[in-house]
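Sharing a chain and its predicted structure for anyone who wants a worked example. Both blocks are below, sequence first, tokens second.
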Amino acid sequence: MPYDAILLDMDGLMIDTEQLCAQAWRDAASELGTRIGEDTLHQLVGLSHQHCLRYLQQHPELSAHMPTLALLNRQYYHQQLQHGDIPLKPGITALLDWLRQQAIPCAVGTATEGPLAQLKLQRSQLAPYFRHVVSANDVANSKPAPDIYLAAAARLQVAPARCIVLEDSVHGASAALAANMRVIIVPDIVQPPASMAKQALAVCKDLFAARALLQQLRDA
């Protein structure tokens, strides 16, 4: 089935910030004399900050340190975003250039808060590619609910079934599927479970492979 628009996640898909976020949680926990296990950090991938806090609150060894843990995390993370490098994921510039050349509408759908999303897009120099950015602040429910991607499709005036979403996380892919959209998963930190991979249009090793698939679908 043809597609009319591409919706893209941001963190872990276009920019390599999931590792930065995980390290900010590690540093915050260390300052408080505790730690966050890697399995727990993996569960945070693709979630909004508020969803992360709710998830961490369920862990007794961490709940006693909230909200100080959350405050320190944001301090470490924002310092890196404002003054450190924000590396691009390999292939994203080539993909966005191709979408522009093909005149294929695209938008960002991110669980990140709006001002922080704009900061990341500006500092990574990806902002000029997008007229529409839907963030966690723009909807009632963030990922894995479908609201963000439904809002992005509405801004592009494209039916959900005619959109393809590019995602790196399980939570984000779940949001796309719940929105009745096809999803291409490009894993970052966490590989999708087999049940999720079966529901995806494809699981691609990188954005170069994702672009090749989109071109094949376009030419078919």
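Comments welcome. The two ends are 9 Å apart (CA to CA).
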